[in-house]
Amino acid sequence: MNETPKNKRGWRILRRLLIGVIAVATLIGLVVTEENWRGKRAWENYQREWTAKGEHFDWQSLAPPAVPDDQNFFTAPIFTAMQNDKISITPYGNDGGPNFLPDHGPVGYALYRMHVTDLVAWQNYYRHQTNADLTKRFPVSPQILTPAADVLFSLGKRDSAVEALRQASQRPYANMPFNYPDGFNSISTLLPILAELKRCSQLLQLRSSAELADGQSARALEDVKLFLYLNQSLRNSPFLISHLVRVAIANITMQPIWEGLAAHTWSDEQLAALNTELGKMDFLADCGSVIRGERAFAIAWFENQRHTREMISDIEIRGRVTNSLAWMPSAYFYQNELNYARASQQWILPLVDTNSRIISPAALRRINDQINLELKHYSLYKVQSLTAFPSLVAVVKKVCVIQTSINLARIACALERYRLAHGEYPETLAPLTPQFIAQIPHDLINGQPLHYHREANGQFTLYSVGWNETDDGGTVALTKMGNFDPEKGDWIWQYPAK
Questions:
Q1: Rounded to an integer, what distance in angstroms lies between the CA atom of residue 425 and that of residue 275?
Q2: CA 80 remoteness from chain centre
Q3: Is 85 left (phi over 0), alpha (psi -120 to 50) or beta?
Q4: What is the distance between the alpha carbons of residues 174 and 242, in angstroms, rounded to a whole number?
Q5: In terms of Cα–Cα distance, which of 44, 114, 125, 63 is closest to 92?
Q6: What is the model's pTM?
Q7: Distance separating alpha carbons of residues 114 and 484, to the nearest angstrom
Q8: Buried b vs exposed e over 348-386: b needs ≥16 C-beta within 10 Å?
Q9: Residue 285 to residue 289: CA distance in whole angstroms
Q10: Cβ atoms within 10 A of the Cβ of 195, count?
């Protein structure tokens, strides 16, 4: 049967549509291929350029060398027992105990402390136990002792474990044993280790505060040294979460140091030792390696997505969610890798000036505004890479606050040594060098000298101008809840009026 003119026209239209579809598909394929090639080439060129300048973008460059288990702190029997829940080094039971953390309540933040640890609350906590399991963990003295002695008695069951931890800290290496090729997936094995370290620090803080109140400053110093070591044991970890836990441990450490200074408990020799140990803590110097670590693992994460075409996310309500990226061109992954590397190199790393030792609030605000502006202008090539940077900026701020706290603590130790030698605090900070401290740290905010006033009551006020870059005369800003507000006012080190 011959085709009708109508059928012929239909076939011609269909054929033209098919040719058009094929042409469009071919064009799209060529465009995607071109984009993939351009993205890969741009990323490889960037890597070559910055590798020649000494930068590294692979996780292998961050992995510490393997060390013998018998020389590694994290593979010591005591730490293995802690991880396997055979030993618990913590000052509280499952109920969390009294709130003594230095970043909550009236104790304030690392830079604002006006209250000593409430040992009476802890004495009552241990003495009035209703939980049988808690009674097994924390024995109670048959006779009521002083709050400090009662707390030390209840914590006495942890003495052998703490001593074993102290012996483990003498090992030459502290390399956390986890699989670096797994990148961010290694965090599942990292988090329990970090939790153990923080719990140990909380016990040591309570114990050292009680020891100071009980007149045992030598034992308190050994405990402070131990949890300063716990802080430093995380320096080799390139994960951001490890750095945040280091900040938390350092914050906890400041409390007994401050309490001993406020009560004039530390001896000259002990103060010199504290200054030496605090001088080893340099969060500014370590910040760059952490940012580079996040960059390397982020790049590995994008590469894994490119190979698997899957993005796995942990969502609090829904749990682990796998999103298919099968339709994504390779250019998406290459360009996000490029933009992440470029932004961290241009924006984040320069925020911490390790030469001048300054962290400029104005620079952080400028970068934060730039990031927010970029986020408003949606780009498929930046959508994933940019989301991490607000948290990195926040980390730089935390580094500035905790390092300022450490610097103020070192100067406070030198001031106390001067007071022990001369019977009073000096009129200025100048007489402290070089006898009591080799060099006085400057204000990290602006590079200017820190502010110091000897008060009429014989005390002193020592402070940084803080994040608002304004000398508020040693005035502390508080939130409506009464907590220290690091965004306003000065960052201050002082003692309660007597």
A1: 17
A2: 23
A3: left
A4: 13
A5: 125
A6: 0.89
A7: 11
A8: bbebbeeeebbbbbebbeebbeebeebeeeeeebbebbb
A9: 8
A10: 14
SS3 76: coil
Cα(first)–Cα(last) distance of the chain, in Å? 113
Helix (H, G, I), strand (E, B) or coil at 332: helix
Give the CA-trace dihedral at 393, 316, 108, 218, to 10 degrees.
-100
Question: Which residues, 6+ apart, have CB-to-CB distance to 295 below 8 Å?
Answer: 57, 340, 341, 344
Place of tokens 């460059």: 61
Q: Is the backbone peptide bond immediately before 434 cis, with ω within 30 degrees of 0?
A: yes
Whose CA is closest to 186, among 301, 50, 319?
301
410 vs 404: CA distance, rounded Å: 10
Asked whether 228 and 257 are in contact (CB, 8 A), the reply is no
- Rounded to whole angstroms, how far apart are CA atoms 292 and 61? 10
Three-state secondary-structure class, residue 417: helix
How would you write the pLDDT of the chain (498 residues) with one tens digit per residue? 555 665 666 666 666 666 666 666 566 656 568 888 888 999 999 999 999 999 999 887 877 888 999 999 999 999 889 888 888 888 987 766 776 544 443 333 445 667 889 999 999 999 887 666 677 788 899 999 999 999 999 999 999 999 999 999 999 999 987 777 666 666 778 888 899 999 999 999 999 999 999 999 999 999 999 989 999 999 988 888 899 999 999 999 999 999 999 999 999 999 999 999 999 999 999 999 889 988 988 888 888 888 888 876 654 444 455 677 778 888 888 999 999 999 999 999 999 999 999 999 999 999 988 888 887 777 778 878 887 777 888 889 999 999 999 999 999 999 999 999 999 999 999 999 999 999 999 999 999 999 999 998 889 999 999 999 999 998 888 888 777 788 889 999 988 876
233 token code pair: 């044991």
Long-range contacts of 468-473 (CB under 8 A, 24+ apart): 468/361, 469/361, 469/362, 469/445
Give CA–CA dist 89/157, Å, rounded: 10
Side-chain half-sphere CA neighbours of 306 within 13 A: 18
| Residue 348 in tokens | 């984040």
Query: How many Å separate Cα 450 from the centre of its chain?
Result: 24
Residue 34 burial (CB count, 10 A): 11
For residue 406, report the phi and psi dihedrals to the nearest 5 degrees. -65, -45
